[in-house]
Amino acid sequence: MVGLEGAGGRSTDEDAVGAAFRWLALGRDVVVRGADGSGRTRVLGAAQREASRRGMTAVLLAASGDSPYAALRAHPSVVAERLGSATALAGWLTEELQARRSLLLLDDVDLFDQASAEVVLQASRSSGAMLLATTRTDLTRLAPGPVADLVAERAPAEVHLLPLGFRAVSRLLAEELRGPPDVALTSSVTARSGGNPRVVRALVDAARVADAVGLVGGRWRATGSLDDVPLDPVAHALLPRLGREQVAALELLACAGPLTREVAEELLGAGLLDRLAEVGRVRQLPSGEEDTVNVDPPALAAALRARLGEERRRRLEEVLADRAGARWATPEHGDLLTGGASESYWQWAADLVGVVTEQASATEAALRIRWQTRPTPAHANAYLGMLLRRRADAQVAAVLAGTELSEEDPVDDVVTFHLHELRWAAWQGEGEEEVLARLRLPGPHSRALHRLLHERTAGLEELLAGTGEWPSPVLHRAAALARAARLVELGHPELALDVCDEEDPARPPTELDHQLEGVRGTALIMLDRSEEADVLARDHLTRALHERDLLGIRVHACLLTECLLDAGDLDAAARVLSLFLRVGPGGPLDATFFRRGLTVGTILLVHQGTVDVAEMLLDALDATPRGFQPVIHSLAPLARAALADSRGDPGTAEQLWRAGEDYLAQGAVQAALVCWVFCPPPLPAERLARLRETWSACPSPRLAPYLRLHEALAAGDQDAVVAALPGATLDVAGLVRNAVAALDPEHAAQEAVRALDPRLRTGAEDDPGEALSPREREIAALAGAGSTNRQIATALSLSVRTVENHVSNALHKLGFTGRTELARWLATDGHPPSTT
What we know:
Pfam families: GerE (PF00196). This protein is about 60% helix and about 5% strand. The strands form 3 sheets. A 6-stranded parallel sheet has the order 1-6-2-5-4-3, covered by helices on one side. Strand 7 and strand 8 form a beta hairpin. Mean pLDDT is about 80; it is low at about 1-10, about 325-345 and about 830-835.
């Protein structure tokens, strides 16, 4: 079998035709295999055109039903008098294929009626024609008959049509929409469609009918929720050729969501499940110890759920509750976190993380046995390197106490062991100096460890002066991380990059490398080089996913989420955030970027109106052991300010300013500047002067637009406000929103303002409530009155998920970040949403 992966990561018509003709040139027949909607017929049509271009005679027959000779009746050259005789029809087909270079094209050969298949078999035996067929199933599993005989005799090669990837979907969308799509729309359609071309087209048509896409700034973008578009075309595209039993099985799976293979077999039986997988309507992916089963593509699962009547849905849920029980239930927070995002991405993330965590568990178990067999520092370091990536207090304590150190151990192994011990001590709240005092290390290494701890709090002059050579590669790498991180904190990211660049990539990699690259990415962001940071994060995250490296996934997913949030691409940021959160909390070795990711995630979810989940992330942020020493600060005050602003709590400006003062007292100039520039306006004159002075000493290009916005607001210069807005893409506590609200109508109508996220333009429109659909107005009124999502769902006979989506959409359109703002608006606005 040949799998096709073009520039877009998945097959195209041209790829498939090219692969097929390479086989044909060798004298080998070809079968093109793909699920319904994957483009089999398009490929065959393209192959017919290519054959004509090459001067070949091509005859195309297509499955057309179960009646005798149905595939032949449809051909325009077949005369009626031949239809009653297989011999006459075989003679006709042989005559059609008498040319020296001829090609027989069979569309959906697995669905050919028996009589047509017998004719094709006879003609293939008496002509020299090559064969190119399409199928949706595995032809090696056919029941005995003429099609099976044809396959056995011709032994064709197989070209497998894989789902379209991002670029291929982008091209298809551009073709269907007659204009280029943006990244977010392409990602969303790619995920929902599973890369199925027919489903892509169905989704595009449905989105246009529902006004869920629009041409904005020369690109097609999602202007509404793709979750609410009519999905009947998807159901009609993929279900008609399935039997009633198979459709009923898919309905049950769609209601259940992802199930383990074991549970799915209990519900449906292994045979039925395998048949659905064979025709591409069920996907089975490794997830931990068992496969995970779900309907494919995700849009079909959504279509099936949408078409269920209430009684049918209730009966299916009763079956699931009775036969699957707790093994079917999905955690509530998972549903809240995913919100309106695509199901396929979440399923992929769940499957992937299952594999990653299972592999990590297996590796950890093997390393534990090796250490228990021979508790040397080398074996302990490998085991601790896994344990310190999570909360494993008892195991870590046992390894530290049970490892046998001797004078024969390599010094680097002993140094690494003690570095792990120091991380653990800080995590547990024990003083690092006390730990250093009891360590048994040669003098140079002991002094180097003391210097290493000092570098984490050193001043700029000390860092620039250098500290001489380090007595081991391990300490050299640890010192590079400490120096680069400290330079970022001191407000000199350009110097931090120099330190990162000095590191020899040929050195053996350590667990510190991910963090060093995370610091590099953070420095790039602060230098307003976010595109470079984005590329860096994607590259490292891709590698970490391939290697199933929990530490790498956590660090680089955090960095990529921050890049996407900084760029204003909230949907993409949310998808990466979901992966970041699924790998779970970090331990002493990598809690730095886990905590920073929680801050970024809190701000992101507040912007998307998912305040309850944002609060959950902030709780996790606050639960980190107080003794933990971060590589760089998490900027948790920003997360708290974002949540406080969403609730309408007073004192956000004072909270952020005090946090900046605290950071400055620790020498963390960069963190102080970040807190201060995001303060809501107006800043008092003395604070603005302090901000200017601090920024001038350590200018941060990325923060410059926010400083200019503060200065413009203080001066009452509306032109300067408008000029600064395009660079101020993130609004943590209301700076940008208040700046827009201060504009007069003439300035508010300028392109720079209208291009902002709709949430930041509230107040610049006459009646933001007009943007709500009738259902959104109804649900917004209930939510603003204090009803919970579950209460609203019960009152309106909707699912909780649907209510969550409508609330999120309403908040987005109104420019609000939480229900408190919604309640205030309902109480004060002259035209509150109608519930009728």
